[in-house]
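Z., the sequence and structure:
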Amino acid sequence: MSIIRKFKLDYDWKEFVRELDELFPLDIYEEHIEHPNPLGIFYHNISEEHFPQHLREAIERGIGYPIKKKGWMWDWRCQTTELLEHVDTLSNAHMTGISEWDKVVFEDDPSVFGRPPLTVNIAMENDAHLYVMNNETKEYEHCIYGPGDIVIFNNNTQKHGVFVLNEPDRIPRRALNCYLDTDDLFDLDHEFWTHPTEYAPWPVIKTKLATSKHNGKFKTQKVPLQTQYTFEDMAYLDTPEAYPMFEKQADIIIEKQCKGIVDMGCRHGPVLDILHSKGYTDFEYLGVDTSLEPIAIAQEKWKDYKNIEFRAGSWENPVMLHVDWNVDQVIWSGVLLYRPDDHYEFFDKITRQRYNSPNAIIQEPQPTQRHWKVGLELNTIANQMQEYKEAYKKFTEYHLDLEIFAGRRLVVDVTL
């Protein structure tokens, strides 16, 4: 059971934001100061006659439920970076004052004032950490969401709050708040709440994370770096959503007509399937990984191809890396983060000094993520690339935003 559901807007989110900004420029927003945002936010109400039907329908397609034909825009403008923990109840509304807008939004008949409808929040700028208390377990459920994501939760029975992420003093949080036009989902036993919070493909995460707050913040811990994964643990990387990450690597190999490829941290060699699907088969390939099961699967799959070899073992073992052909491409796919203190030196030692390869591909997760598990600290070196840029002839970066766990990825085409 989930108490938060996250969806993807069925519309290009940048165009969605552009259209709303054109209709409702920031200079028409009004300031609003009260609990749970005592430092103030700016807002603009959108009435039915001014809510573009095609944008409303894009939200409805994303969540699969109708929404009311009205909403309101938020702009926190960096003066507020946290929405304090609260519940959107009728009694709270009475405390802060029931506006005419509340009467219109909360009930179709303005003469009757009842419970607030469930909020549908569409992120427009910056990422946010939403936390909601489970009234049964008294533990928090978390969700990170960013531009183009939609979240739904029971905002008038469950305590909730929001932290702004990613330089909150410089990058404001902006969002569109709408309201569900159905009462069915007030029932937490509804089938809607039986689905996972996240819609994106996710790895198997076995680490138990803290769910309580300490001094107003949630505890975090580093992602444990493991050298043994089962195939299923990382199967999210084999989904269609992850395909562009490996296709970019394949496209670089084909563009440079590479003939000798060493794939460090290869798993079962997904780049091979893409190369073959594109008709590119004239090369030698060595895949190296420490995890036994993915390597065994790859060895069985490619056993009839004399130009393809997979080995299970440590990259510290020179025998593991030996080849008797010229290497002109080394792929480092999400593995240099295992060497946080000397990743550049190790990259250079293997790529240039050992193989004398003229090319390399680096793939690493970006520091900021919108599909992420709250409580985990991301291991990444993607923001430590300056030495590479200064040392090598060419350093071409591709920034991907994929609908998978840690889907913001850096892929780099390095010419040594």
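The mean pLDDT is 90. The chain has two domains: 4-199, 232-415.

Let me know what you think.
H.
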